From TrEMBL:
PANTHER family: GLYCOSYLTRANSFERASE WBBK-RELATED (PTHR46401). Residues 166-332 form the Glycosyl transferase family domain. It holds the Pfam family Glycos_transf_1. It comes from the Bacteria. This is Glycosyltransferase involved in cell wall bisynthesis. Keywords: Transferase. It comes from Clostridium frigidicarnis. One of its GO terms (molecular function) is glycosyltransferase activity.
Amino acid sequence: MKKNIYFINWHNGLNTLNGPTNVFNSLVKEITQEDNIKVICPETFNGNFTRAVKFIMSTFSNSEENIYCVNSDGLKMPYVIYLLSRMHKKHKYYMMVHGFRRLEDKFVGLDKKNYYRLESYILKNFQNLICVSNFSKSMILQYTKRIKPTYVIHNGVDLIDYIDLNKEKHMEKEIRLIMSGGVKKLKGALETVNLVTSLNNKNRPYRVTLDVYGKFDDKVFFDSFLEAIHGKDYIRYNGCVDKDELYEAYKRAHFLIALSYLDSFNMTVVEAMANGTVPIITENVGACEFVDENKSGFIVKLDDYYGRIEEILDSSFHKQEKYLNIVKNAYDKSKKISWRHKLNEYMELFYENKN
């Protein structure tokens, strides 16, 4: 029997091209009339939070069991849904979890104790959690001591219909790297600059270039990044661009580089693969669960990556047939995780879960 399903996301209108709201929007755009899903967000209620909450409360009068899935872009709406779940217990409640701010902020020196207390409380007590990776799930279980049901559904990706892989990815005199997702300490931005600089300091038959995309959230760190790339014509900071332009940049690149210290998922990994770009990422990236080592990408250790990356680039340049096979594997792998596939996984969980 069809159930009434509500996907809920309340955001501040900023950064909707990235992060949790981008994931939510990509997922719900696959909804069809047959899915029987209603979407509650600022766009559907003209930004009126009170009206949205009143509408949600009106749905509780339904005698049937409803399903509510709230996105964790901020804590305001998740906390409201948690409180409502305590009063209306016959329904099922899920929260989509994209990270753990307590750990992420600690790394960059931020301290928002009240926020972290509420975050930990919600993560520990919400009826059902859906994490974007097993890596994220393990962090949450470890630090909150949560015992309630916790599931994993990886993020999806837009499907790219056709790419001439041989034409786009052939290497001649340079190997093109791309780093997307922002200039952030947590994502190893300076480490990536130092890596590329060191690679170019050696005599090679190719030059390594790096294109960097995304915003910054720390002006002091960003200034140190700009200083580090000053005078290096092989490193370019391109700022924030729309998705189409970013996808074209992925197509031009040979490798995505993500030397993250802590990353619950990292959408750039699957976006790159969908454009035939091979990921080189640390084991601290949740999306590494989707990468087959040496088949559809490469996973390196954060404390010892230079030699391994040097080996990957040298081998790929001199054995391009093998490299192009990895490109094809990465591209083919992405086709198994379209956003429609992911929405189906959510629906299967909602209908099969007996908790």
